[in-house]
Specification:
Elements: E1 4-5, E2 13-14, H1 17-40, H2 46-57, E3 63-64, H3 65-72, H4 76-88, E4 92-96, E5 104-108, H5 110-130, H6 136-155
Antiparallel strand pairs: 1-2, 3-5, 4-5
Helix pairs in contact: 2-5, 3-4
Length: 183
Amino acid sequence: MDADLEISDGPPLRSEPDALVRRLLSGARELERRLDHGFADNGLNLTRADVLDCVHAHGEQGCAQTDLAASLRLSESNICTLIERMRSDGWLFRMRSATDRRRSVVVLSPRGAEVASQLHQLRASNAERWLAGLTGGELHDLNQLLDRLLSVLRVSPPSGAGAPADRNAVVPITAAPALRRAS
């Protein structure tokens, strides 16, 4: 279908999947921009805030550096550089695992723990403010649709060279993660 669909209270939406993906990406970029702006008051950007959030979620035992890289879809070298910068800025501690001396474990410094809690509250209050124009039912429907989209994406083959020929083949999302730029 090439016809545009009219949506009340909004711009025309092309019925093509490509147009929908572009709108989703545009929305994601706008949310990232807003989050970056909010985190700047604490001297952080979105990537650094994600590191604090991920390490905070692992509690006092910390997070293995390799697990952190995988969770944030960053390369090992990027996460190493990022952790070193955040360590020197006083956000994190890096130490060797007590059970496996080959592994590095990252834990929050007292400063990092305090700011991680503040960032969580900031993110939650901003999310409420940004989504206040949607009804409870719309939020529920959007959440359901996004869950369904993520579920479909997890089993869809990646595009480009090396993609499986079988469109129905299950490809774990971690099989070929896109790497984000660390900063």
